[in-house]
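The instructor's notes for this session suggest beginning with a concrete chain rather than abstract definitions. Hand out the sequence below and ask the class to guess, before any prediction is shown, which regions might be ordered.
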Amino acid sequence: MDIEQQILEYFQHFHTHPEVSWKEVETTKKLAAIMTELGIQHHTFPDVTGLIAEIGEGPEVVAVRADIDALWQEVEGKLQANHSCGHDANMAMVLGALLHLKDETLTKRIRFIFQPAEERGNGSLSMIERGAIDGVSHLYGVHLRPIEELPFGQVTPALHHGSGIFLRGKIMGVDAHGARPHQGKNAIDVIAAIHQFVKSIYFSPFESYSAKLTHIETGGDSLNIIPGSAKFSMDVRSQSNELMAELQRKIGEGLTAIANLHDVDISFEWTDYTPAAEVSEVAMQIADAAIRETLGDEATAPPVHTTGADDFHFYTIKKPQLHAAMIGIGADLAPGLHHPDMNFNHGALAIGARVLAHTLKTT
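After discussion, reveal the predicted structure:
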């Protein structure tokens, strides 16, 4: 079987066997089985999912990371794990790079990091804690890009992701009878005020940012009760880590003011922080040269700035001397990442594998 066909088979397996964050048990077993079949040195962990493999010899270590988790979402009316994030493709491309390189004579070690829980925003931290980037000088990531960012056949040497974080909050007011609203403190009124508030936050239009409610839970089956309590969540994003800090400060001040206005208690916490990209110029230039040598100048796209977030960038936050960049693969991906019906041109998998292999070999 040729490499392109093997990449497609890997993709099809992971696509049809999705597992959500921290529960990628069978995915890890499959990765281990692949490594054993290929005769590749690898190890897993007793307390978390994920796998690290390594080929080559020498004191220098370069690495590539693939995220392995799926999302939990409704697909055709059924809640299920679903690889609408494209991590099935990322695994297939990184495995393809391994197939291209495993029989090469290498003067350095190449480490393959298969990381859990990217969608939770902290899976990379588990790998860092377990030595994934110990001794690593250069680290690369890879990800399919939506069609509005890159068409099929185009590849960028760097993705400048923004920062992302979730807020989970609770409103504690007072229930009331539907006929006597003055006796209660209506949590839905508070939710409406929060919604309007986050839509009225303004910073410079020259840097992208957003804050929006993504979950509301209030009320019960008795429709004549005005609910006093509610739970809510926000998705908050910005193009820089500095602006993210400002957004968090302003949202926190706003929630305090709304609580005072409506005479209720609002508690909240920030969770699953993902930092904005800190792209290494050195790594980006190596990837750029590899794309040009593999595909030609006409297929080499400039760096892409995207509002999406990725916990890949914790690797450089935790190890600033690391030269890191995430390569973006054009795939005519539509309707979009995280859409339950996301689809893409599968020809992008072979392209991504070739670019990754050349990037790792020439680093």
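Then share the key points. The mean pLDDT is 97. The domain at 163-272 is CATH 3.30.70.360 (Alpha-Beta Plaits).
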